[in-house]
Amino acid sequence: MLCAGLAANAGARANAQVHAASRPGGGQLAVQINDDRLTLKITKVPQVYLYGVIDADAPQRIAALMKSWKIPNGSDIYLNASGGDLRAGMALGRLFRAGAMATHLGTPRQPLHAPVKAKTAICTDACVYAYLGGFYRWSPSGFDRMGFKPVDAKPGAAAQAPDDIAAYLKEMGIKPEALPAPTSASREETLWLSADQMLQTGLANNGNQPLTASFTPSPGAPSLVISQVFRNGEHRIAMQCNPGVVNVTAYDVVGAVRAREIVARGFRSYMEVNQQESASQERDGASVADQAVLISRQYPSTQLGKLLYGYTLGAWVSESNRAYRYGFAFVLNPVRSTLEDFYQSCWRFAPWPTTPSR
């Protein structure tokens, strides 16, 4: 098995060199496409490394690779580029968004006999704007770093930049204030972005689209759906108010095969409220519903405030040794106002007999 693994890794490295569309040098962006069998088995999509300097012609070369399907939609894009042409960086970002690409920081795979050593990916200036085009954007990890020299992205300041940065950020769904504002002392310095900062401001989403909640008032039993699309599926919790009880159903949409695997391995399933187990049930508490793992529970209406006004709400399936669990948890703050509307609608529809406690 070890020999087979080494052979597969060697084949993957060799294949990466065969598919190198361009090489560093002359101030151009280099491209390495890893689409060998082992890579596709693990990641399902090619890994594309863009490194060097983002030159003015880089978007045309990448567009040609996308058109020829050498870089298919949904590919993983790994960036390691400093400086470069800002217009070209934004043009690359638009290509990534149109192709539903996922952006990361990372260094290219090394040649077959090269010594193995850790390398740091640096993404600055034009590279940052290319990164922001990713539909899914992973924050830097390890020693990888992302930063930029500030450009005023406020409306009316476009003359200071080679493109309308404010319009680009809006197009990508990024708030201009998410990029840290420079101080008078830092205008010539690179502002480095931490992983936590990027996640908190929405510059990175680590594979998850924004949390949504939909609630439509009706004369019948009020219902609510909280959902979040992630790269390989969707997490969803549906609630329906009835006299005396609230039906809560969680769907972890991961595909039929994966859903069956999770349920087969599962020993215990439970909801999670404020990172605490709730309504735990062994054996038959989870089932497969089409493409999803389904967990359904009933709560007394008096518990609705606890469900909706907590910090997190999720659903999990755990193996018997508790070493592994499968599921998700929502951070509810982004949809708090919709949850409050639903709470009030449930109270009006079927008020519970005690004073509601939040």
Characteristics:
19 strands; single chain; alpha+beta; globular; 2-enoyl-CoA Hydratase, Chain A, domain 1; disordered N terminus; Immunoglobulin-like; 2 domains; six-stranded mixed sheet; six-stranded antiparallel sheet; 358 residues
Can you summarize this structure?
With 358 residues, the protein is an alpha+beta fold. It contains ten helices and 19 strands. The strands form four sheets. It has a six-stranded mixed sheet with strand order 1-2-3-4-5-7.
Describe this structure in words.
The chain is of the alpha+beta class and about 350 residues long. The chain folds into two domains: about 1-200, 2-enoyl-CoA Hydratase, Chain A, domain 1 (Alpha-Beta Complex); about 210-350, Invasion associated locus B (IalB) protein (Immunoglobulin-like), CATH 2.60.40. The chain is built from ten helices and 19 strands. It has a six-stranded mixed beta sheet. The protein is globular, with a radius of gyration of 24 Å. It starts with a helix and ends in a 9-residue tail after the last helix.
Shape: globular
Distinct helical segment count:
10
* Multimerization status: single chain
Q: Which architecture name of the largest domain does CATH use?
A: Alpha-Beta Complex
Using DSSP, what is the number of strands?
19
Rounded mean pLDDT is: 86
Estimated radius of gyration: 24 Å
Strand order of the largest sheet: 1-2-3-4-5-7
Q: How many domains, as an integer?
A: 2
Strand content: 25-35%
Largest sheet properties: 6 strands, mixed
Examine the coordinates and then state which fold CATH places here, giving the name of the CATH topology of the largest domain: 2-enoyl-CoA Hydratase, Chain A, domain 1
Low-pLDDT regions: 1-14, 17-21, 153-160
| Head-to-tail CA distance between termini | 56 Å
> Any idea of the CATH class of the largest domain?
Alpha Beta
